[in-house]
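Q&A FORM
Asked by: J.P.
Topic: structure of Dihydrolipoamide acetyltransferase component of pyruvate dehydrogenase complex

PROVIDED:
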Amino acid sequence: MAVSSSSFLSTPFLSNSKSTISFAYSVSPAPSPSLRRVVFRSHRRAMTVRSKIREIFMPALSSTMTEGKIVSWLKTEGEKLAKGQSVVVVESDKADMDVETFYDGYLAAIVVGEGETAPVGAAIGLLAETEAEIEEAKNKAASKSSAAVAPSPPPPPATSSPAPAIAQPAPVAAVSDGPRKTVATPYAKKLAKQHKVDIGSIAGTGPFGRITASDVEAAAGIAPSVAPPPPPPPASAAATAKATATSSPPLLPDSSVVPFTAMQSAVSKNMIESLSVPTFRVGYPVNTDALDALYEKVKPKGVTMTALLAKAAGMALAQHPVVNASCKDGKSFTYNSNINIAVAVAINGGLITPVLQDADKLDLYLLSQKWKELVGKARSKQLQPHEYNSGTFTLSNLGMFGVDRFDAILPPGQGAIMAVGASKPTVVADKDGFFSVKNKMMVNVTADHRIVYGADLAAFLQTFAKIVENPDSLTL
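REPLIED BY: S.T.
REPLY: Here is the structure written out as tokens.
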């Protein structure tokens, strides 16, 4: 009888690869000596045992992560692993996180080394179930590496004469067997949605099979999204090429080019995305004498100025929910059910915004304790995704650096961001014409004009100022 065994367990970043080993297995009763050889041969069967070689995929550690960097491998090739052990540390666009194994086995091969990057869903290592399968896994890893570095065919030479070849879509290659995560650039996904192209049916030509915008354009049968070349000037082609080459200034001597880290790449992407949102800004001076006095009173108990400002902003947002709303598709907006204040923190290598969830409801002292924990995690790159990607309103404070005022760029997916300057002595006149000195800080809010209007923002800032100028409610 034939016997086979296999099991399929799925995780967000592991898949199975199976090989077959066959050996003789007899199930017949003992025959007479004269017929033993004939009966034995007639009852020989092959038992099939399936080994498992699993691919360790680059996990998606945040909603905006498209690729990750291997910070360090915690285990070496050939080392035995137990379920739940950390195997590798991955740097996402927000934090460094340990990746654990969900299976017992052996780290058979490392596909992506320390310091290298790979797109989400790409194999970064191989996990063998038994020690005997390590060599097979290494051979598989070697074949993957050779396939990854294989030179791609050169692109066809460009032609300056117009041709109807644009209307002919490029053939779509067959998708590999078995379920596999679709890896595509954000712009490619946007194009696929815009042109109603099934992105899962496209074979990517980018690194590790990543789908690029040109792949989507080819599948949709549209012209590449590049500007048409200008008509050639009467000057010679050589002169034109020389002018193009000298159009950008050369690199200065002893200068160095530094590639973006994953976090810097994420910041760059978000800032460019923010340019597509129509924003406006409103500034408001706020008297901080009472807030400064309260801060001196609660500071020994561990309360920070950040916690006071976040609490005041949360209470003001509760009265003006439209400022806490968000518009993500340009066709509707959402009143968020929670008030989660994201606070900008500068860390080594970039900027991150830990989130104080339910800032309007938390006790001031608990809010301060939570903020201290978040800052510690942010600086050690140990924030969990929900601790930095759930903000509904952002607070950025540069007052501790003596900055009078500044404007902040609206983060994608939020309705407003508040920029807080330093509190400084200011000469003011009262209604009777008498002059006095008051501590004032300038608060500027940048908002999405699709959902927040000038009157909405002015009313919100008035409420915020009243809470700060009469801060007793912050300690209730």
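FOLLOW-UP: Residues 364-379 form the longest helix (16 residues).
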